[in-house]
Amino acid sequence: MKILCIGEALIDMICTDKGKSLSVGNNFLKKPGGAPTNVAAAIAALGGEVELAAKVGNDPFGKQLREVMESFGVGTKVMLTDNTHFTTFAYVSLMENGERDFVFNRGADGQLSIEDINAIDLTGVGIIHFGSATGFLPGPLQAAYLHLLQKALDKNIFISFDPNYRHLLFQHNIQTFIDQSWHFLQHANFFKVSDEEAMLLTQTNSLDAATDQLLQRTNGVFTITLGKDGTLLGLHGKKYIIESIPITPVDTTGAGDAFVGAVLYQLRNHTKQAILNIDYPGWETVIKNGNKAGARTCEYLGAMEAFKHLTNQIFQ
Questions:
Q1: pLDDT tens across 95-133, in order?
Q2: CA-CA distances (angstroms) from residue 110 to 9, 86, 107, 154, 257?
Q3: Which of 13, 25, 153, 189 is the most exposed place for a label (fewest CB within 10 A)?
């Protein structure tokens, strides 16, 4: 079955002048990105059929994003062009004090609308992945995100969710991110969070307390990524730890997206009911393979470069 990913497609502009603020830095590395864009690329790289629902500008950067997706084999029929807004940019620099200097120039990604969603043919779509923090910012995408969730529920489509919290986007209104995330957490059949996100969303100060809340308040299978300490799996009221793959990382960018992409790739040929009936040994295999995909991604510089080396042979 086909997978549909929805959210932002954007350009990351990474300042390569070490320790410099954006006002001082002169050199930038341009990288195509956006969490759901990364997930779609990972699924396609592994051999899955996937479409990306997103908006880009009618400019060279939107063209680049479309071409990169097509190079991986991602379907771009619902990767739409907005003629009045530029492609979204995220500028980031790591300063000497460890803080990130960040400017988010939002453009076309936020313009994906309910009308755009209604035009999408969901025939053959077995999984919809919601993976965009920008989907919770005010604008048409926010309403489109909710609308597609309701359509997925109405059509009994398997729902995947990754909140992808970005503090610099919500630092002045964290509660709205938490509230909107819980609506998706409680409807998701599978979701992935980091340990920091788990504690933020549950307003707890320990992993155990956060896990207990997620087990009590959600019905889906979930994972909490713990870096080198493994992946916590929440399944049928119980929690398990599945070991990470030992590596010397070059760049962790996109590792979580590769993990999600690998999980969804493995689930793609099952019906929703069959996925819901998978037992622990089955999920253990799925998560181990997800960890392999995340580890492979960390061995290369940049998510899209890493995905060129991501094939389903790593599962063997």
A1: 777 667 888 899 999 999 999 999 999 999 999 999 988
A2: 10, 11, 6, 24, 20
A3: 153
Write out pLDDT tens, residues 119-168.
Answer: 999 999 999 999 988 999 999 999 999 999 999 999 999 999 999 998 88
Q: Rounded to an integer, what distance in angstroms lies between the CA atom of residue 231 and that of residue 174?
A: 25
Residue holding tokens 């990306």? 52
Q: Which two tokens stand for residue 206?
A: 């320990």
d(CA 164, CA 186): 16
End-to-end CA distance of the chain: 22
Give the pair of three-digit tokens for residue 248.
């010397």
Q: Give the residue among 100, 102, 164, 99 at the shortest CA–CA distance from 137.
A: 164
Token duo for residue 82:
């907005």
Nearest to 31, CA basis, from 50, 51, 9 = 9
43 is in which domain, residue-wise? 2-21+28-315
Q: In the 3-class helix/strand/coil scheme, how is the chain assigned residue by residue?
A: CEEEEECCCEEEEEECCCECCCCCCCCEEEEEECHHHHHHHHHHHHCCCEEEEEEEECCHHHHHHHHHHHHHCCECCCEEEECCCCCCEEEEEEECCCCEEEEEECCHHHHCCHHHHHCCCCCCEEEEEECCHHHHCCCHHHHHHHHHHHHHHHCCCEEEECCCCCHHHHCCCHHHHHHHHHHHHCCCCEEEEEHHHHHHHHCCCCHHHHHHHHHHHCCCEEEEECHHHCEEEEECCEEEEECCCCCCCCCCCCHHHHHHHHHHHHHCCCCHHHHHCCCHHHHHHHHHHHHHHHHHHCCCCCHHHHHCCCCHHHHC
Please report, for the domain that includes residue 127, its CATH number: 3.40.1190.20
The model carries a pTM of 0.95
- pLDDT score for 98: 62
Number of domains in the chain: 1
8 A C-beta contact, residue 148 and residue 155: no
